[in-house]
Amino acid sequence: MFMLKSSKSYSLLSNKCFQSRNFRVNRPILNTVNLKGRSFLTLKDYNAEEIQHILWVSADLKHRMKHMGEYVPLLQGKSIAMIFEKRSTRTRMSTETGFSLLGGHPCFLTPQDIHLGVNESTTDTARVLSGLADIVLARVYSHSSLEHLDKDASIPIINGLSDLYHPIQILADLLTLQEHYGSLRGLTLSWIGDGNNVLHSFMMSLAKLGIDLKVATPKFGSKLQFLTDPAEAARDSNVLVTDTWVSMGQEEEKKKRLQDFHGYQITMQTGSLAAPDWTFLHCLPRKAEEVNDDVFYSSRSLVFKEAENRKWTIMGLMVCLLTDYKPQTPKLRF
């Protein structure tokens, strides 16, 4: 059995200033984090305090704009170039609507508009976009494309998804769990499914935030193999998570993958082994073989709150990378 345990050494922020859905101040908060000008390719490059700051800004914007009805045009006069080699619903909608809501102008670029490294070299594309936009979000097949863009660009690059990592999804997951449980530290999250980019990003971040991680993957050529028994992974966990078993580009492997993942569907029986307060996450789109309707549409499921938080967390991230904005609401209780 493999279990990635969190480390107490990552406790960098006070955890006394935010209760789930209820703000309260205990003492003045001094903000020392400034991420302006940074790129966001992988959570490996961000420490606990920086991740917590992004979540704080995201929660602040959600509170001010959704619940208080304020207009907060922090990105007025700025533009974002959105490069999409892969199709998307949540990433495109959250980025376009979020950037516009903050007063900026999003520019969507399909593979027909900008074929990275084909119609024009990636180096030239990076330099051109640096003179035309303030920030780039790229959803690509190969993570090396992002690294190449970042190397030659003079503006921040955000990973909208690559074959190795999906860090913006993890920000949404963390904010959703923060809202639901009131605190992240001490939770146990169980991943049941494929060893993919979402799992890689969980591995780059959870231990920093005091969250334990358990992983169950089948006995086949997965990059990550820690457990093979879904029941063992689910036992005593607070959060059950899965994702697609057949990612884009793996369609030819579908038949074999469905055979390999037989028995990995998350059901209420799986949940019966988890902690009493267990919840379910899925980054969507979901297939029935991954999780049944009883779980997916139950009160345990946070998937639609999770999907909405893609918007607030990408907004928070873009504000952090483009401005030195200081949140107006109390720090979250981590």
Description of the structure:
With 334 residues, the protein is an alpha/beta fold. It has helices spanning 48-67, 90-101, 122-132, 143-152, 167-181, 197-203, 230-234, 254-260, 268-271, 293-296, 303-322, and strands spanning 3-4, 18-19, 22-23, 79-84, 105-109, 135-139, 157-161, 188-192, 212-216, 239-242, 279-282. It folds into two domains: 29-165 and 310-322, Aspartate/ornithine carbamoyltransferase (Rossmann fold), CATH 3.40.50.1370; 167-307, Rossmann fold, CATH 3.40.50.1370. The strands form three sheets. It has a five-stranded mixed β-sheet. A four-stranded parallel β-sheet has the order 5-4-6-7, sandwiched between helices. Strand 6, helix 4 (143-152) and strand 7 form a beta-alpha-beta unit. Helix 3 crosses helix 4 (143-152) and helix 5 crosses helix 11. The longest helix has 20 residues, at 48-67. The chain is globular. Mean pLDDT is 89; it is low at 7-29.
Give a quick rundown of the structure.
The chain is built from eleven helices and eleven strands.
